[in-house]
Amino acid sequence: MITRRQVIVTGSAAAAAIAMPGVLRAQAGTKMRIGVVPLISSGPFFIAQAKGLFQKVGLDIEMRTFADGALAIPALVAGELDATVATINAGLVNAVSKGANYKLFLDRGSEKVGAGSMSILVSNKMYEAGVTGIDKFALLKGAKFSLQAPGGIDQYLLARGLEKAGLDPRTGATYSAGLTYPDIIKSLGTGVTDAAQCPVPLAFLAEANNVGKLIGAGYEIEPGCQLACWAMPTKFMESNRKAAVAFAMAHIHAARLFTEGAQKKDPEIIKIISDATKVPAPLIEKAAPRWTGYDNDGMPDTASVMRQATFWVDTMKLIGGPVPKQETLLDLSIAQEAAAALKSANPFI
Q1: Same fold for the domain at 4-110+226-344 and the one at 118-221?
Q2: Which of 131, 146, 249, 323 has the fewest Cβ atoms nearer than 10 Å?
Q3: Which of 145, 199, 143 is nearest to 176 (CA)?
Q4: Residue range 119-175, pLDDT digits in tens
Q5: Where are the domains of the chain?
Q6: What pTM was estimated for this model as a whole?
């Protein structure tokens, strides 16, 4: 049965297609199942939804939320998603090295200096013991680190912090996974957690509620670190390329609006993100411009992606080698085609 919503969406997409001859777009009403994390860093996706950018290029988006990009990979592998946000986590690298049928294809945020959202927190006890900045990471030897998911961006930044302090990132601390970011904040106050990585504005809330101290940003540990990419099954890339490029076009344009909104503290953009994430607008405004960095043309930092893949295999030894080759892990042709299409005929302006 065709629902009223489907009629409206399909009709809108068809009308947009007629109004934009020559613009690259998917077949009107093409459905895509997308995995998203409900964080400020997902702002470009929420902006594209709210402003109807996906519809303008013929896409009907069905969203499914996950607490962490690492937790969405099983659904992608099972064929339940057409694209998802994915951190450069150990599970993803392991799956790709074993022949998984998907690739990273589009930027989904990085720790650009001054714009990165990731923050390092310690308990009040650890702060009083002298862990007052990133340069004091050596004092975290033997500490308890809490993570949302094992082998994800949280563990990567914390482990790299230990490594840069001269400690063994495998044994220098105890890693415990399975808590959501709000629960991690609570655990700092109860003494269960000594240190953690959380995005702003949750880090601000921790300090405001006196349950922990913010000691630095993720980009102080690794400037420009690629936080996540969009991942897509190779089968979908091949059989629905126009849809993949259309998705990338909408997301790239929305990421530009997101970046501009973070700099200007744009009330409209803040409201869109607040409505989607349920984070109060004043907190989102306070976090600006540290909402997450995005490349203007949607290109992931390939060197950062490969550093993380190598880290999970060679340093942390969470998975067996070899490290997947760059061309096995990434396909940047979709982002390149989308950026070129926007340059020649941007349907969103």
Answers
A1: yes
A2: 323
A3: 145
A4: 999 999 999 999 999 999 999 999 999 999 899 999 999 999 999 999 999 999 999
A5: 4-110+226-344, 118-221
A6: 0.90
End-to-end CA distance of the chain: 35
| Cβ–Cβ < 8 Å for 339, 298 | yes
pLDDT score of 238? 95
* CATH architecture for the domain at 118-221: 3-Layer(aba) Sandwich (3.40)
3-state SS of the chain is: CCCHHHHHHHHHHHHHHHHCCCCCCCCCCEEEEEEECCCHHHHHHHHHHHCCHHHHCCEEEEEEECCCHHHHHHHHHCCCCCEEEEECCHHHHHHHHCCCCEEEEEECCECCCCCCCEEEEECHHHHHCCCCCHHHHHHHCCEEEEECCCCCHHHHHHHHHHHHCCCCCCCCEEEEECCCHHHHHHHHHHCCCCEEEEECCHHHHHHHCCCCEEEEEHHHHCCCCECEEEEEEHHHHHHCHHHHHHHHHHHHHHHHHHHHHHHHCCHHHHHHHHHHHCCCHHHHHHHCCCCCECCCCCCCCHHHHHHHHHHHHHHCCCCCCCCCCHHHHECCHHHHHHHHHHHHCCCCC
Taking the C-alpha atoms of residue 2 and residue 61, their distance in angstroms, rounded to an integer, is 16
Nearest to 77, CA basis, from 227, 290, 233, 281:
233
Strand pairing of 143-147 and 173-177? parallel
Confidence of residue 5 (pLDDT cuts 50, 70, 90): very low
Indicate whether 281 pLDDT > 70: yes
* Interval 303-318: pLDDT, tens: 999 999 999 999 999 9
Confidence of residue 58 (pLDDT cuts 50, 70, 90): very high
Task: Write the CATH number of the domain with boundaries 4-110+226-344.
Answer: 3.40.190.10
Residue with tokens 């190598």: 310
How far apart are alpha carbons 268 and 285 in whole angstroms? 11
Measured in whole angstroms, the distance separating CA 292 from the mean position of its chain's CA atoms is 9
Whole-angstrom Cα distance, residue 295 to residue 298? 5
